[in-house]
Amino acid sequence: MWFLARFYTAFEAKKMELANIVVPVNSNYNHLEKLEQETVKWCREILRNNSTAIRVLKSALNAVDDSHSTLQLVFEDLLERAREKEEKEAKKRQRFAKDFTDLLSTIKEITASSIWEESKQLFEKSSEYRSIGEDSFAKEVFEEHLVHLLEKAKEKERKREEEKVTD
């Protein structure tokens, strides 16, 4: 249909679902009043919709005339907002992880050989643990803390061995 570039009447367009309504033309010009009434009705209905969605759709429809630049700008803007939100969430997550790690460091019962399920009762009521949100992420932070404790213990042992050799 599009490649043939044929012209269609309003009634043909409505039949093909290319038009939503047809306002018939008559000789006494009251069709203009009817057209205006329909236009106002549609505008009110459109205004009830989400303004961002309307803006994006309008940009998409105008993109051909605007050499796709408007749509590209809208897309880039939305993409940038998503990136910013993602970065903000990542920073927040890092802050929560640090706070939880700091808490774990203060709990003397947690050692390099501690087990998540057994240790969880020591911190599960804390705000640091609850603020992390995801149990799997909290467990990951816990396990990283255990690795850090193990490395500290190995370093301490290595220094002790060095001191024995120098004595």
Largest pleated sheet = none
Q: Spans of 5+ residues with little confidence (pLDDT < 50)?
A: none
Tell me the number of strands: 0
CATH structural architecture of the largest domain? Orthogonal Bundle
Oligomerization status of the protein chains:
single chain
Mean pLDDT reading? 87
Shape: rod-shaped
> What is the N-to-C order of secondary-structure elements (H for helix, E for strand)?
HHHHHHH
Keywords: Coiled coil
Pfam families: FF (PF01846)
Protein name: FF domain-containing protein
GO molecular function: 1,4-dihydroxy-2-naphthoyl-CoA synthase activity
Outline the structure in words.
The structure is a single chain. This protein is mainly alpha-helical and 167 residues long. It contains 7 helices and no strands. Helix 4 (69-106) crosses helix 7 (135-166). The longest helix is centred in the middle third of the chain and has 38 residues, at 69-106.
Brief summary of the model shown:
InterPro entries: ClpP/crotonase-like_dom_sf, FF_domain, FF_domain_sf. The protein is built from 7 helices and no strands. With about 170 residues, it is mostly helical.
Detail the topology: elements first, then pairings.
Layout lengths: L9 H6 L14 H18 L3 H12 L6 H38 L9 H4 L7 H6 L2 H32 L1
Descriptors for this entry?
coiled coil; ClpP/crotonase-like_dom_sf; FF_domain; 1,4-dihydroxy-2-naphthoyl-CoA synthase activity; FF_domain_sf; Arc Repressor Mutant, subunit A; 7 helices; mainly alpha; 167 residues
